[in-house]
Design goal:
Largest sheet: 3 strands, antiparallel
Structural class: mainly alpha
CATH topology: Ribosomal Protein L9, domain 1
Helix content: 40-55%
CATH class: Alpha Beta
Number of domains: 1
Order of helices and strands: HEEEEHEHHHH
Subcellular location: Nucleus
Keywords: Chromosome partition, DNA replication, Nucleus
Organism: Wolfiporia cocos (strain MD-104)
Strand content: 5-15%
Radius of gyration: 22 Å
Distance between the termini: 47 Å
Shape: elongated
InterPro entries: GINS_A (IPR021151), GINS_bundle-like_dom_sf (IPR036224), GINS_Psf2 (IPR007257), PSF2_N (IPR056784)
Main location: nucleus
């Protein structure tokens, strides 16, 4: 969502990608390396061809230096995404996806598309899923009630996108509901 900085009350997509980069992903190292300690934890040792888990930020760093292959998460494949797209377009509720699927997918497709089978098809499916979910979000927001909004299975990026609109709308709806109550109280006094 492109808003001027003065109106931005949420994190930017790049900031959400940075947060998502703390998630662990499997890699297949191409070089041997001893266990290395960082503030966030110790990772390794790396012994090719044995897989190991590490944060996405470290895996992408190694990938850019051609020192590993990243094993994509189980959900980042054509079959899984086609099934999720079918659910998104046929069922009224949001299908369950990893909370930070959009951010993780973007980082991995940007850095390690050669490690993902059919990356162009995966990108296309992710875009279709995003559009279907945005349509559901718009529909849900059009039915906004001053007492609650129920949109289960929303993901981090989607929550971030609707937050400014939702917060302002709920504030206005709350005021509108209170005003008639206040007027009724004034009539009885």
């Amino acid at each position: 969502m492109a808003l001027p900085p003065s109106l931005r009350t949420t994190a930017t997509p790049a900031e959400l990608e940075l947060i998502a980069s703390e998630q662990l992903v499997e890699i297949v190292p191409l070089v041997a390396m001893e266990r290395t300690a960082f503030i966030s934890g110790a990772y390794g040792p790396l012994r090719p061809p044995t897989k190991c888990k590490m944060p996405i930020w470290m895996a992408t760093n190694l990938k850019l230096k051609k020192k590993c292959h990243i094993v994509p998460p189980d959900w980042l494949n054509v079959e899984y995404l086609q099934e999720r797209l079918a659910r998104e377009t046929s069922e009224p509720e949001f299908s369950e996806l990893p909370f930070r699927f959009a951010e993780v997918a973007k980082v991995l497709l940007d850095v390690a598309s050669d490690d993902i089978s059919s990356p162009d098809k995966v990108r296309s499916l992710l875009q279709d899923i995003r559009e279907a979910r945005q349509a559901k979000s718009r529909e849900g927001l059009s039915k906004l009630d001053h007492s609650e909004l129920s949109l289960p299975n929303l993901c981090s990026m989607e929550i971030n996108e609707i937050r400014p609109f939702f917060v302002r709308s709920m504030s206005i709806l709350t005021q509108l509901v209170r005003e008639p109550e206040t007027r009724q109280m004034d009539q009885f006094e």
